[in-house]
Write a structure and sequence with these properties.
Shape: globular
Distance between the termini: 31 Å
Order of helices and strands: HEHEHHEHEHEH
Number of domains: 1
Strand content: 15-25%
Number of helices: 7
CATH superfamily: NADH Oxidase
Structural class: alpha+beta
Bound molecules: flavin mononucleotide
CATH class: Alpha Beta
Radius of gyration: 17 Å
Amino acid sequence: MRKFNYPIMPEIMQRWSPRAFSEEPLAEADVLALLEAARYAPSCFNEQPWRFIVAQTQHELQAMQDLLTEQNLAWAKRAPVLLLLIAKRTFTEGGKDNYWHMFDVGTAWGYLSLEAERRGLIAHAMGGFSRKRTAEMFSLSPDLAPIAIVAIGKLGDANVLSPALREREKPGTRRPLSETVMKH
Ligand SMILES: Cc1cc2nc3c(=O)[nH]c(=O)nc-3n(C[C@H](O)[C@H](O)[C@H](O)COP(=O)(O)O)c2cc1C
């Protein structure tokens, strides 16, 4: 059970990572609005190191599903949209390493997930996919790091999940702030 000690944005309180996706397709405007939310994340030097590859046709979905681990594929195969988040490792101006590239793509993912919640959609990030095969499939240069694949859609019936996954189909909890805030 989640426990909130302070009143915060309802989207933060309510967002979680379900696996029971409905196969219902999403409106194009919803998909684009999620990318819009991600695009307006802040980033170091306003570099906007995020890049997106959206899979939503049958053909595109099959190709991206192919990159997932077996455990993720088992449930993510029902999501009507899969989104690959990519981070550009270097600054466009000057070409130096951008230490914050993943930090900023993480912020973009956070914004996207909250906009999804606001729209009654679900978004579940996955690190479980082959980064090597992803880079090959999309001919990513070494400067472009595949970070996560996000399953996006609407909440479906938990009965489609295996008993083991159904057991885990609830919002994740968090350790208390007292164990998270470190001493000076
Ligand atoms: C970067 C990242 C990678 C993740 N990878 C996976 C994954 O491969 N498979 C999976 O089922 N969930 C994955 N998750 C979901 C987390 O397990 C989940 O966010 C966490 O347990 C907290 O639960 P909540 O999102 O319901 O609050 C990932 C989440 C993030 C942010």
